[in-house]
Design brief:
38% of the residues lie in helices and 18% in strands. By secondary structure, it is of the alpha/beta class. It has one domain: Alpha-Beta Barrel (TIM Barrel). The protein binds ligand PBG and zinc ion.
Length: 322
């Protein structure tokens, strides 16, 4: 007998009964840009998101926690940039200061994750260090290892290297363990594509490369096997969590990696995925809230356990998933 499908779509109650995909507020992570200069500054290409100094950051996160948020990912907007991004390993940098204050204020209520990358700290805006106008892998890894230790000493829960240098996961793990930070976890940006998806982020962090592009370290969006291979290697090197970004263009990779790894899988709904919804909504062309919610649902449906999104705060405040 033919199956009468619409019977199971007739009421909201029955649709809720059989819904296969749900997002719990604790599975969302809100990114924050932490600036050294006191106060806040708007980011025109990321509507509703501001760079914040530590005091406004603390009050924003206090509100977010009340709405059910449990995890934050911090990006630094440092005051000074140098060829070797030296302030990334300084304990007075804005990120270790923010980590210390957040852990002191919220303790284990809040999971603090920090981005480990040099692009906001180097004057050339590349994610690694240059020698003879090339990114030098080992020098870059050494600097990232020092940056991760700096954040660990400040009390971070999870370090998240987004630089895409080779062998950084193993090097960071080894150095954390050697310094008795066995309990600090590593969230690897395991599959991260080069391309146009990160524009608004670079406005926010002031981290655009001054010359060239990131194609010699970020991955080619035409490839599947390249990313899966690296992701499994990151897991082998000691990554506790694996992340894929951008999210929507890579739902195929999320589904595939989910079948190949047993590590919790993150997806990063990146800046332009968020901003393009906001821009079209401002023009009145789409219903932004509905579309944003559909973005997050399809990312979850593809297999992501956790979603990092600029829309996390809004999703919780507006009760999209409660
Ligand atoms: C730093 C970093 C970037 C993002 C996360 N970490 C930017 C880049 O690689 O240029 C992008 C996140 C976003 O677009 O929201 N390397
Ligand atoms: Zn970078």
């Amino acid at each position: 007998m033919a199956h009468r499908s619409r019977r199971l779509r007739l009421s909201s109650a029955i649709r809720e009964l059989i819904a296969e995909t749900r997002i719990h507020p604790s599975q969302l992570v809100q990114p924050y840009f932490v600036q050294a200069a006191e106060g806040t500054s708007e980011i025109p290409s990321l509507p509703g998101i501001s760079r914040m100094s530590i005091n406004p950051l603390l009050s924003q996160i206090e509100k977010d926690l009340k709405n059910g948020l449990r995890s934050v990912l911090l990006f630094g907007v440092p005051e000074s940039k140098t060829p070797n991004g030296l302030s990334s390993k300084n304990s007075d940098d804005v990120i270790p200061r923010a980590i210390r204050d957040l852990k002191k204020t919220f303790g284990s209520e809040l999971i603090v994750m920090s981005d480990i990358c040099l692009c906001a700290y180097t004057d050339h805006g590349h994610c690694g260090l240059m020698v003879d106008s090339k990114i030098h892998n080992q020098n870059s890894v050494d600097a990232l290892v020092a940056m991760a230790l700096n954040h660990a000493e400040a009390g971070v829960d999870i370090v998240a290297p987004s630089d895409m240098m080779d062998f950084r996961i193993g090097a960071i793990r080894q150095n954390l363990d050697m310094n008795n930070f066995e309990d600090v976890s590593i969230l690897s940006y395991a599959i991260k594509h080069a391309g146009a998806y990160y524009g608004p982020f670079r406005d926010a962090a002031g981290s655009s490369p001054k010359f060239g592009d990131r194609q010699s370290y970020q991955m080619d969006p035409r490839n599947v096997r390249e990313g899966l291979r690296d992701a499994l290697q990151d897991e082998d090197q000691g990554a506790d969590f694996l992340m894929i970004k951008p999210a929507l263009p890579n739902l195929d990779l999320i589904s595939k990696l989910k079948e190949m790894t047993l590590a919790p899988l993150f997806a990063y709904h990146v800046s332009s995925e968020f901003s393009s919804v906001k821009a079209a909504d401002a023009k009145g062309w789409i219903s932004g809230d509905q579309l944003m919610r559909e973005h997050l649902i399809s990312i979850k449906r593809s297999g992501a356990d956790v979603i990092v999104s600029y829309a996390a705060r809004e999703a919780l405040a507006k009760g999209w998933f409660s």
